[in-house]
Each structure stands twice: as C-alpha cells, then as structure tokens.
C-alpha cells in the first residue's frame, strides 16, 4: 500500500465519521469514494448481473450503520466487510428459496457458454467461480482486488494465516482443475493466479 493509498483511506475514514454525524455532503463523497470498490468486490464474489443489487443493499446497510462507525479500521475495510456480509446473506437467502422449475433449469443450461473460443480470462473466471466460497473470496480479495493479506483478513473476519492458506488452496484447486480441463497443459494466465 502506498502513501497515497493510506492518505486516501484516512480521508475516506474521515468522510465516514462526518457522514455518521449527519453531514450530507460527506455522505455523498463517501458513497462516491467507495461505490466502485464495493461493486468490484461484489461483482467478483457473485456476478456483474447481481452486483448492482448487492451494492445497493450494502449501501442501505451502510446508511443504518454509519452512526455507529468508530474507525477501529479504515472505512474502506469496514464497508467491504459489510459488502461481504451482504453477499453471504444473499447466498443464504438464495439457498432458502425453492429450487427452480424444470423450465428455468433447462433455460439456464441452454445459456451456459460451452464454446472453446472464449478468451483465457473467461476460462480463469469459470475456474474461480467453481472454488469454494471462502477460497474464492480470499483469492479475489488478494489477487484480483489487490488487498494485502492483513486487509483481506479484516474484511473476511478471519486470521491472516487463514487467508494465506485459503489463497494457497485456491491456487492449487485452480491449477488442478486447469490441468484436468486442458489434459495436462495449464495456461500461462492461470499460472499467474
């Protein structure tokens, strides 16, 4: 993390504190400063299609929680933790809903991409999507969004060692799945993950 990043985080934290005390302009600036990060995290954890709804839900929660924000961590870390919880809650909600009808299931299967002409990053994304939720989250936070292991641990609410092991296992899972898919030839882009 650079000095500019630390300075930006400090500024965003100050905006959150002011917004929590009722400053509307600070609230607008805080939302503007964090919206993109929240959407990116949720798009990677779920999908770009659902990221908009989850982002909106996150900011509704933020509005209720801002008065209690005490700056024990940076506001960016705090809001991404709320976004993560929103995502987890959406998964729980989806699992509690009845299974799709046969027609919906067949429609979903028919629209599943099967072409080998997709670019390599789509293949990587599909492999990442197949990871268990905890490993996918750790990998996305550290390798895609660029958070340090310490920051990712705060966002996920776990220890740093847990994040490190989840990332290592996620990488191993991706390499194994890639090897199975490509008959022993893993692609250069996947080795970078």
From TrEMBL:
GO terms for molecular function: DNA binding; sigma factor activity. One of its GO terms (biological process) is DNA-templated transcription initiation. Residues 125-173 form the RNA polymerase sigma factor 70 region 4 type domain. Coiled coil: none annotated. Signal peptide: none annotated. The keyword DNA-binding applies. The keyword Acetylation does not apply. Residues 34-95 form the RNA polymerase sigma-70 region domain. Belongs to the sigma-70 factor family. ECF subfamily. This is RNA polymerase sigma factor.
